[in-house]
Amino acid sequence: MASGSEVMSNKQVILKHFANGAPKESDMVVKTSSISLKVEPGSNAVVIKNLYLSCDPMMGNRMKNLGIPGLTYTVESPLEGFGVAKVVASGHPEFKKGDLVWGAVGWEEYSLIKNTQSLFKIHHTDVPLSYYTGILGMPGITAWAGFYELAAPKKGENVYISAASGAVGQLVGQFAKLMGCYVVGSAGSKEKVEILKNKFGFDDAFNYKEEQDLDAALKRCFPEGIDIYFENVGGKMLDAVLLNMRLHGRITACGMISQYNLSQPEGVHNMMNIVFKRIQMKGFFATDYFPEYAKFLDVVLPLIREGKVVYLEDIAEGLETAPAALVGLFTGRNVGKQVVAVSKE
């Protein structure tokens, strides 16, 4: 509740202790603190009210004691991630009260943002605001840059996407279809496989959990081999893909979710195929391409407005649901982009 000094109660998702292995709900706790809704005179900071929070697999790594400055979360402090928010107070000349923004925020009802370079002002509100956690936010830039900029696709090429029903994969598949590519995706349930084929228009898809032999599954789907692999899984999947890549194939390494929670990462045994087949494999972060955000919007916004791409979200209601929503990413519980709705205001 606000008082005369404009101090508001502020519910937060706190890292209780570092995660050991896969993140658990018990690694987090929801607490209530307080926050001033005023910005100190002379400060360029802004105070924002968070509307939507994005659940992303990288957050699981940040919950571990990796000792990487700027990446590892701080115990007894709120988690951080991407979100959509409304400015409630500003000392920055480029942001005013009432502005809608997306970018790096705390997992809390209100956040004080001192590094405003991490925020993007939202100018287009004819699409759902939650899209700025996904198709118009970090996952969207990831899909766009990883496919168009890194993979350099050509019409008619064969494209394979692992974890294809997630926030990034569903977009890569649709971008590839718009390019005139042959597209196959894998996912972890029959329901997700049907969504890939019937909602996102993939040419084929398979449930990797039902495949005894991933190499055989890929040969069934790609008898002539794979030109582009959009890598989200790693481990045994990457090993099988390397056997099925075509000459001069390209692998865009976006993530390797199968490896995030292992105490001992799996080895990859078929790496010599990179040499034999002259395969290009490159990793990247979405943030590498944030300076090209305007160019990205010019491409993707018209596709949304014209109905040429669709986006599937899985929205959990209330900040209290955030720990379970985040943990669910690592068991495949979500269907589509996992979002937490903090406030509809």
End-to-end Cα distance, whole Å, is 16 Å
Look at the structure and give the mean pLDDT. 95
What is the quaternary state of this protein? Answer: single chain
Instruction: Please identify the structural class as seen in this structure.
Output: alpha/beta
Radius of gyration: 21 Å
| Spatial shape | globular
How many helices?
Answer: 9
Largest sheet: 7 strands, mixed
Give the DSSP E fraction (strand runs of 2 or more residues).
25-35%
Strand element count: 15
Element-by-element helix/strand order: EEEHEEEEHEHEHEHEHEHEHEHE
Give an account of the 3D structure.
- The protein has 345 residues and is an alpha/beta fold.
- Helix content is 23%, strand content 28%.
- The chain has helices at residues 58-62, 138-151, 169-178, 190-198, 214-221, 235-244, 272-276, 293-305, 322-328, and strands at 7-15, 28-36, 46-54, 80-90, 100-106, 110-113, 119-121, 158-161, 182-187, 204-207, 226-231, 245-253, 280-283, 313-317, 337-341.
- Strands 3, 4, 5, 6, 7, 14 and 15 form a 7-stranded mixed β-sheet that branches.
- The radius of gyration is 21 Å and the shape is globular.
- 44% of the residues are buried.
- The mean pLDDT is 95.
